């Protein structure tokens, strides 16, 4: 395992090249280019804001559903963006993961490189796109008066964990999809499920304070994504910082997923190469 | 005695045969194994018990009928297919001329593709910069076209550019899979010259081809692969002779069969 990791590290330049190529192709073909990276999440955020922030404004007590009440700095808009932007990184990676090996079939069948770099390149490409959306978030932080401090330290942890879990998923999906093309369709549904089952559009407290049974709440909180997005929110809303248990399941879950993805990838590699 | 550059020990690779389609979940759960469409499926060994060594500076030609595993063997040497049995050890970097258009992204221009694929194969930016002119020149691409997206290229142009690029690699081992059949006569002549030049500095080459002329021209050794087995490992003339004898026997057998039918 260590030797494979080393091989991937030695090929990090190749990963960089693939990432740059993907971005280049993406931006070259459209007139607006980089602007799309800003417009797309912005449009998504506006839609969700309209539905969940304007239409569905609940009664007194849980107004605007931003943690800390309606007067909290940043409000629902910032809350939404701080969860939605990293989510777009993840959902983008999951969608592209299925095609990771198939689109590179020609390269894979002629060049000897560790095959892991293709899923890795996808996760990195989407990560770069996520970083490119930061200007939007910063604009909102300044305009809406978002506040942070030491809680900014949650951000690197959130990113590392999200990287690990996304890479795990991507490794798993990319190889399985070569053998069973059904996966591609399942993923479209699954990303929806994952999105609504994580506190991205709504604060975690809405689930925990609801009348749902306790076992459901426990299962809900075991989802490692819950912890990751709570970390992302916690940067601007310190009250959202996950507790010790939640943090443990998140870290454990993220790295377990990475391990599962990696082992599956290694196991299926030979069959995948024959199929391509 | 130097170590062999390529060392194959008991190589074997199998493919699943007769696997028509995947079973649907319904069939799997309701009908159990009764309706398994893959019942007749069996493993098919494309290659088995193949062992050989290639020393530095050798040029080995692989001959055999279509579908006997020549390309599969080459892919395993290149490391893009993993053997199910045995091991293959390659000491040194490999320049694969397996599929020349590989890695060219249709959306990017010729220039960008040369840089991208060149770097993927381990060329440094400096090397690429220095040789760019040479590559374009060799590929006979008109000046205006190099900055056009590759999707507008003719298939000949893509292949020429691919060959021009890969032939600039300085890797000690070259794997060539029938790519010499591309291009028109004058370009083919150029490819031969380029390959001969590459062979001069002690490089190792493995060549798969059906063209006797090519094989005799470059190779000093021949491997004859017959139905997944390595039946002969000798010099190229002998391997070709064995292959020709078998081919003639087959043609004779076919004629006899046809004759029998007609009568």
UniProtKB/TrEMBL annotation, chain A:
Keyword match Ribosomal protein: no
GO molecular function: ABC-type transporter activity
Keyword Transmembrane: yes
Transmembrane segments: 31-56, 76-102, 127-146, 152-173, 193-212, 244-265
Annotated ranges, domain ABC transmembrane type-2: 32-268
Cross-referenced Pfam families: ABC2_membrane
Top-level taxon of origin: Bacteria
Compartment list: Cell inner membrane; Cell membrane
Major place of residence: membrane
Gene Ontology terms describing biological process: lipopolysaccharide transport
Record key words, sorted: Cell inner membrane, Cell membrane, Membrane, Transmembrane, Transmembrane helix, Transport
GO cellular component terms, semicolon-separated: plasma membrane
InterPro entries in the cross-refs: ABC2_TM, ABC2_TM_bact-type
Membrane topology: Multi-pass membrane protein
Family under the similarity heading: Belongs to the ABC-2 integral membrane protein family.
PANTHER family linked: INNER MEMBRANE TRANSPORT PERMEASE, TRANSPORT PERMEASE PROTEIN
Name of the protein in question: Transport permease protein
Automatic annotation (TrEMBL), chain B:
Pfam family, one: ABC_tran
Native species: Nocardiopsis ansamitocini
Origin organism lineage: Bacteria, Bacillati, Actinomycetota, Actinomycetes, Streptosporangiales
SUPFAM superfamilies reported for this sequence: P-loop containing nucleoside triphosphate hydrolases
Keyword set, alphabetical order: ATP-binding, Nucleotide-binding, Transport
One cellular component (GO) term of this entry: membrane
CDD domains: ABC_KpsT_Wzt
GO molecular function annotation: ABC-type transporter activity; ATP binding; ATP hydrolysis activity
Positions of the ABC transporter domain: 25-252
InterPro entries registered for this protein in UniProt: AAA+_ATPase, ABC_transporter-like_ATP-bd, ABC_transporter-like_CS, ABC_transpr_TagH-like, Bact_Polysacc_Export_ATP-bd, P-loop_NTPase
Organism domain of life: Bacteria
Protein name, entry field: ABC transporter domain-containing protein
Spans through the membrane: none
Similarity annotation: Belongs to the ABC transporter superfamily.
């Amino acid at each position: 395992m260590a030797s494979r990791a080393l091989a991937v590290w030695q090929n990090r330049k190749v990963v960089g090249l693939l990432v740059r190529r993907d971005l280049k192709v993406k931006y070259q073909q459209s007139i607006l280019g980089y602007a799309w990276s800003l417009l797309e999440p912005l449009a998504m955020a506006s839609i969700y804001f309209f539905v969940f922030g304007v239409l569905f404004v609940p009664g007194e007590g849980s107004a605007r559903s931003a943690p800390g009440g309606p007067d909290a700095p940043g409000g629902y808009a910032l809350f939404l963006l701080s969860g939605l932007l990293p989510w777009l990184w993840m959902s983008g990676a999951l969608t592209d993961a299925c095609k990771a090996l198939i689109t590179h079939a020609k390269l894979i069948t002629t060049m000897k490189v560790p095959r892991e770099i293709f899923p890795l390149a996808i996760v990195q490409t989407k990560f770069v796109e996520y970083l490119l959306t930061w200007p939007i978030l910063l604009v909102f932080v300044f305009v809406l008066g978002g506040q942070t401090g030491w809680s900014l330290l949650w951000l690197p942890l959130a990113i590392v964990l999200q990287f690990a879990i996304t890479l795990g998923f991507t490794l798993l999906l990319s190889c399985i999809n070569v053998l069973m093309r059904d996966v591609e369709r399942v993923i479209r549904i699954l990303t929806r499920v994952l999105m609504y089952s994580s506190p991205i559009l709504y604060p975690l407290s809405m689930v925990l304070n609801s009348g749902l049974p306790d076992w459901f709440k426990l299962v809900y909180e075991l989802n490692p994504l819950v912890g990751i997005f709570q970390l992302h929110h916690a940067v601007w809303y310190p009250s959202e910082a996950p507790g010790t248990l939640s943090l443990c399941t998140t870290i454990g879950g993220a790295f377990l997923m990475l391990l599962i993805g990696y082992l599956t990838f290694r196991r299926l590699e030979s069959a995948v190469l024959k199929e391509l | 005695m130097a170590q062999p550059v390529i060392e194959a020990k008991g190589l074997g690779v199998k493919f699943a045969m007769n696997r028509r389609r995947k079973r649907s979940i319904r069939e799997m759960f309701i009908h159990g194994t009764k309706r398994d469409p893959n019942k007749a499926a069996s493993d098919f060994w494309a290659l088995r018990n193949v062992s050989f060594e290639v020393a530095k500076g050798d040029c080995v030609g692989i001959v055999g009928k279509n579908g006997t595993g020549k390309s599969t063997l080459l892919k395993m040497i290149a490391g893009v297919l993993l053997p199910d049995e045995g091991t293959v050890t390659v000491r040194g970097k490999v320049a694969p001329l397996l599929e020349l258009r590989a890695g060219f992204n249709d959306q990017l221009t010729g220039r960008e593709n040369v840089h991208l694929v060149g770097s993927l194969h381990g060329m440094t930016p400096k090397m690429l910069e220095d040789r760019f002119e040479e590559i374009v020149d060799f590929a006979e691409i008109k000046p205006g076209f190099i900055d056009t997206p590759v999707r507008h290229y003719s298939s000949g142009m893509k292949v020429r550019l691919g060959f021009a690029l890969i032939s600039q690699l300085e890797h000690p081992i070259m794997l060539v899979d029938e790519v010499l059949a591309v291009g028109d006569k004058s370009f083919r002549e150029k490819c031969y010259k380029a390959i001969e030049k590459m062979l001069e500095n002690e490089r190792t080459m493995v060549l798969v081809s059906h063209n006797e002329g090519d094989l005799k021209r470059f190779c000093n050794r021949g491997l004859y692969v017959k139905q997944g087995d390595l039946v002969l490992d000798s010099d190229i003339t002998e391997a070709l002779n064995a292959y020709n004898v078998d081919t003639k026997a087959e043609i004779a057998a076919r004629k006899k069969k046809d004759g029998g039918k007609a009568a």
